[in-house]
Structures are given as structure tokens and as C-alpha cells.
Write a structure and sequence with these properties.
homodimer; about 240 residues; alpha+beta; Arc Repressor Mutant, subunit A; SH3 type barrels; two-stranded antiparallel ribbon; 8 strands; globular; DNA-binding
Chain lengths: ~240, ~240
DNA sequence: ACAGTGATTTTGACTACTCAAAAATACAAG
DNA sequence: CTTGTATTTTTGAGTAGTCAAAATCACTGT
């Protein structure tokens, strides 16, 4: 009895949701889970109780959910399939990075271990997908690095985009137009708390402004090594780092 | 409301089942449908009534099912996805032809039109899959050629294997070992009605015997053009014809 | 013409997942 | 404390698909 697509989606969304929680918190509120999954709140409650019964999540009524070790392992394999598929669709099938999410969303539940291993091998055991999200290892190990965002990183430094945490095609195309794909370099010129905006200078030396919401979706690497390693001059079509 | 995987499977199986019917018959008995799908007979009845309600099949109680025009179109797109995926897994992913069926069985329900078109293009709009089964066109057109089998073709002629109608990996590997993949040439030396067997000579000049059941699964092209076009001498790893 | 056999349909029930709406709970603010 | 609000849980119900077993039908052979 392999886990159903539904179960896989719940676990994946709990994992992702917990990751988005404010520092310190570890329990994902049911409401957030329900809306991430696009189901009614009551539905999530029912399902989560069942998942808790199977030992995949810890559930504290009125407080929220969190994955158990077993649940984390399963969520990781789903994420691994999803992200390998996304990268495969971009690198091998030549699809654009903004159009692969929906396909991956479906394929993640049906690709066999054999096929996913072939894909992994064909891509050279990549570490991140086209959005910079880390690809979990074969045995369910996830190495999440901590990144600043364009909203929190020091002003005046050159940083390397590491990860774009939004799958909306419109946003992704915007990011691409401004040279903000993972691996690309950008300078933070100024930040205006009141205006809720960040002033940036791209690799092409043009400056532009991002609102706080958008800026917070761009995770960046502020270490000097990253800046040094990054495509130095005209970095227009940066690929995710290996 | 796109058709569910279940509906797609029923339609696909009705199409394939009707194709296996003895000459003249056009209605697939419920029992055959049920066992092809691995469900209880009553389940098939219930489902088929619903499909009839949606105008996808014609259902004659106690006689059987047949696809309507709409049902045929849908079955064709499922078959198209299945067969393109199978060929893709062999040609691009380097999987063996005997191990792609199960993956294709799942993938056929989730690959998007965009992705399947990319696959089709990448493969150069192929006409047949690795087993020689025809790949329906984008608009649901299926051009089924009629073939003899090793059980019905004239004795003493060189024929070209066109299609292998069994997905069992064990059988497929057997077929491969004896040089009977689609595109490969074989000579029918003799046929013994009583012993229920066929004597064959492969491209490597070795002779071997096939039982009637196995022989009837190998569809062959008996036209002289086919024999002429086929890989002339050492045809060991024949690919399906384009 | 009719009993027997095998295929088919019907029936009743079950699982997995879902929703809407009512009830319960937590919590912040007075 | 107590009240108001937002969140969560409970309840009752519905859909899609499934099964086992009983009832029904079709057809063969006598």
C-alpha cells in the first residue's frame, strides 16, 4: 500500500509550510495547510488526524501539525521527485523554468524509483532545481542552507541569487527579465523601510526597484565566496549551481 | 472536468479489447473488460453504464461495450501518450523495452499536452512505439495496419516482425534473445498444426521453435517491400520503423 | 421444451476524499 | 472576567470507485 497522491501532497505541504514558519515556530497551523492544499479547513483536520494515526505527522489539536521522522522521509522523496523532474524538464526537455511546475506537480506522484534514478544520473546528481530549491538525497536527506533575502541582506553589497521561492509563472518571468535567476549577481543599492521597497542594480548595470513582498521571495547568498564564484561579468542566463 | 485516470483506463481497455475480438465481433464482453482492468465484473458493469451515460461508449446489456466516436478519440489520446512515453523512455532515457510499460501506464494519465508534444517532436513524430504499436495522431486518428502473425503467415517466406502484442517483460526478453524485435527478419520454416508449434530461422541462421500461443503474439509484415527494406544482414538490434 | 452452466447485473456495503455549515475553542481587548 | 473574533473541529452529507455475494439472464445440450 504505497501512499496515495493525496497523502504525498499533505506531507509535502506540511514540510514546505513548516519551512515558511516564523523563526522558532515548528507547528504549522491547520488553516495554512488547508489553504496551501486548496481544501476546506475541516478536510485538512480530518486528513491530518488520519496521518497522525499512521505515524507520519504529530498533530496537536488547535495548535497545528509537524512531520515525524517517517513523514519527513516521505516528504523528502516527494520533493526529490518534484525537483528532479522540474530540472529534467528544463535541462533535457527544453521547457522554460516558469512552465514546469504544473507538470512536476503531477509527475512527482507517478515516476518510479528506476526512472527518477535515471533522471538523477542523467543530470549528474544535481543539488538544486531551476528555482534554487535543494534536491533531497536518495535516502530522504535534505540539506537546507539558510539564506538572507533581498529584504534582509546588508545594503551596498553584491549578492548572488540562490533561490526564488514562488512558482507563479508571471513572477518567474519577471525575475528572469531582471536577471535575478539563481546564480546571477545583483547589488543592493538602498532599502527604504517606509516605502517598503528595495533599490537594486543588476548585472547589466540598470537599476530597478522591488517591493518588500517580491524582495522577500528572492533568497540570496551574501558570502564573498559566492560572489567570487558567480558568473563574473555578463551573467544573463545563469544556471543553478552544482 | 477532465476524465479521471479510471475513465481513461476503461476507454483504453475497451479499445484494446475490441481490437482483440475475433473477426466480425465489435462488442467487448464485460467479463473480458473486467479482467483486463483487474476489477470485479460488477464494477465494470457499473462503470460502463456511467460511461454510456456520458456518451463515451455504447453499452448493450448482456452483450458488451464498444466505443463511440467521442470515446475512440479519448482512447486514442491516452494510447498516444502511453506509446510516446514508452518510446521516449527507451530512446531518450535509455531504458530497456521490457521495463517501460509500467511507468508508461502511470505517466499516460498525467503528462500535459505541452510535454507530450515536446516528446513527439523530440522523437521526430514517430509512427510506432518500441513494440511496434502504432502511435495515434495528435487529433485522435489511429491508423491500424493489418498484419499476419507467425501462426497465420505463409510458410517458407522471410517476414519482418512488425509488432509484439504482449507486454510481459519475460516474454519481451525472450523475443529479444531470439532476434524477434520489430524490424527484425525471420523465416518461417515449418508449421505443425498437431504439435501446435512453428519452426523458425532467425537472422543468425539458428532455428528454434515457438508454441502457437507465443507465435500468435508476433505480428509480421509479409509484403516483399518490407523484407527488402528491412535491415539486410546482421540485424541484431533493430529499432521500430519510422 | 427445459434444466444446467456460465456470464452478467443488481444489491448492499465499504474506503478515501471532499464540502458546507454548525459547534467548540483559543485568545486578545476591554 | 467577559465578550468578540478568528481559527479549528465536528457533523452530516456527497462523489468516485471498489468488492462480495445474490439474483438474473442467455445459451447449450438433450
Amino acid at each position: 500500500m504505497p501512499p496515495s497522491s493525496t497523502v504525498e501532497n499533505y506531507l509535502k505541504e506540511v514540510y514546505l509550510g513548516v519551512g515558511r514558519l516564523p523563526a522558532g515556530a515548528t507547528l504549522l497551523p491547520m488553516g495554512q495547510l488547508a489553504s496551501a492544499l486548496g481544501v476546506a479547513p475541516g478536510t485538512a483536520t480530518t486528513m491530518v488526524k488520519a496521518l497522525a494515526e499512521s505515524g507520519l505527522v504529530d498533530y496537536e489539536p488547535y495548535n497545528g501539525v509537524r512531520l515525524t521522522a517517517a513523514g519527513t522521509r516521505l516528504a523528502a522523496t516527494v520533493l526529490r521527485r518534484h525537483r528532479l523532474v522540474e530540472l529534467f524538464l528544463v535541462q533535457v526537455m527544453g521547457m522554460r523554468w516558469d512552465e514546469v511546475h504544473d507538470d512536476a506537480e503531477h509527475l512527482e506522484h507517478v515516476v518510479s524509483d528506476r526512472l527518477i534514478d535515471r533522471i538523477d544520473e542523467m543530470l549528474g546528481h544535481p543539488e538544486t532545481d531551476p528555482h534554487g530549491d535543494p534536491i533531497p538525497g536518495k535516502e530522504g536527506t535534505i540539506r537546507e542552507r539558510h539564506f538572507e533575502t533581498l529584504l534582509t541582506c546588508p545594503v551596498g553589497t553584491r549578492v548572488v541569487v540562490a533561490r526564488v521561492s514562488d512558482q507563479d509563472p508571471v513572477f518567474l518571468r519577471f525575475v528572469e527579465r531582471h536577471g535575478l535567476k539563481p546564480g546571477q549577481v545583483v547589488s543592493v543599492e538602498a532599502r527604504d523601510e517606509v516605502a517598503d521597497a528595495v533599490q537594486l542594480r543588476g548585472a547589466d548595470d540598470a537599476t530597478f526597484t522591488l517591493g518588500a513582498r517580491a524582495a522577500s521571495k528572492l533568497l540570496v547568498d551574501v558570502t564573498p565566496e559566492a560572489a567570487a564564484a558567480a558568473t563574473p561579468s555578463s551573467a544573463r542566463d545563469a544556471a543553478p549551481r552544482r
